[in-house]
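re the bet — no i am not wrong, look at it urself. input seq straight from the record:
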Amino acid sequence: MRTMQTTNIMNKYHNAKIIRDSRIIEVDEGIYTKQKKDKLDDEQQYTKKHLKKDGGVETYKEVYERTIDFLNYLRNNYKDQKILVVTHGMIASYIEKIGERLSLEQHELKNYATFNNAEIKKINI
């Protein structure tokens, strides 16, 4: 919902085609979604923070794989076109690192938070 609000604000004067894609949604925190940190015990906080599979939490590897799938879709369908992608920080960070052609190891995936809120970067994929 937040990314669509941002997209609509940015598109107010451009009337560009908007395409929603579930591959670039926020990380699924499973049963911990929308739960306040102070309401979780230590083990639950760890699971949520480190994206462990317990409780339906999506793993870093799963997020990375759907990001790769999204980028392959863009490469195959929008070659040589300029695309504006509005998404969440982790997805944006993965897109940036993939664009830099960096190899990402599963244990390193959590270390790629490189975007600040409302930040815009030009990335070549």
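see?? The helical segments are 2-10, 42-49, 60-77, 89-99. told u. also DSSP finds four helices and no strands in the chain. so pay up
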